[in-house]
Amino acid sequence: MNFISWNIDSLNAAIEHKSPRGELTFALLSQIAAQKPDFFSIQESKLPVTGLNAKQTQVLNDLFPGYCTFVRNSTPPAKKGYAGVITLAKEQPISFNCPTIDAPDTMDEEGRIILLEYPDFYLLNVYTPNSGDGLKRLEMRGLWDDNFRVYVSQLAERKAVIFSGDLNVAHEEIDLKNPSTNHQSAGFTDQERDKFTQLLEAGFTDTWRFQHPDDVAYSWWSQRNRMAKPNNAGWRIDYYLVSSTLKDKIKKSGMIDSGTRADHAPIYLQMAFD
């Protein structure tokens, strides 16, 4: 069973592809479609409250014919056209839900979690809030991490869980190019890293690190620094995590080459279900 997850940084920019970056994004989206994954999880769709428009729906249907589409957008009082997640699935789930986790501020309304239930597992698509410039949201981010850990742990008591997304944290120093200068940067504070450790200790496995304990690879490169991608000065902040009871079913996990396009690369997971 094949899974792909990607922070696309605006679905509309990919669909319209009117800029060089948009062209790169659409080409990558088309590449993903050609692989025909069983599940495709998108973060940072940045759709309006009304959701997909007619053109976006048609293009997704053309690229992913026959897939079920599940959408969650940012809604008031959260910012318009912010965050948002979409999950495409070949098979209809037993159930679909847009859970809330009693998160602080407007985080529950920002379109950050989609839950699908299947016979063998729950599938979560997650876009974790960024702590922001100057770490202005760090305290609230910590509450999100705590509440999400409780939520996903409760799910795992009923059925195994597979979840993916932009989790906005580089867990260990090996997970970013320049750890020494980033200990006060969003995504690499002691608090965020410790919360991720607690998540793993709650019974979940980082699939890529499980298979590559000493390897270096990144899933995100800053757009603000034009030399970040050419110099491979990246971070690994996108993950597939699974209930540790599923460790023996992990076949392969990795990143999809995004070429010259900075920002997030798609990630993939292959699982061996009977």
TrEMBL record:
Q: Which Pfam families match?
A: Exo_endo_phos (PF03372)
Q: Which GO terms describe its biological process?
A: base-excision repair
GO terms, molecular function: DNA binding; DNA-(apurinic or apyrimidinic site) endonuclease activity; double-stranded DNA 3'-5' DNA exonuclease activity; metal ion binding; phosphoric diester hydrolase activity
User: Which InterPro entries does the record associate with it?
Assistant: AP_endonuc_1, AP_endonuclease_F1_CS, Endo/exonu/phosph_ase_sf, Endo/exonuclease/phosphatase
Instruction: Report the CDD domains cross-referenced here.
Output: Ape1-like_AP-endo
Q: Which residues form the Endonuclease/exonuclease/phosphatase domain?
A: 4-246
Record-stated family: Belongs to the DNA repair enzymes AP/ExoA family.
- Name used for this protein in its record: Exodeoxyribonuclease III
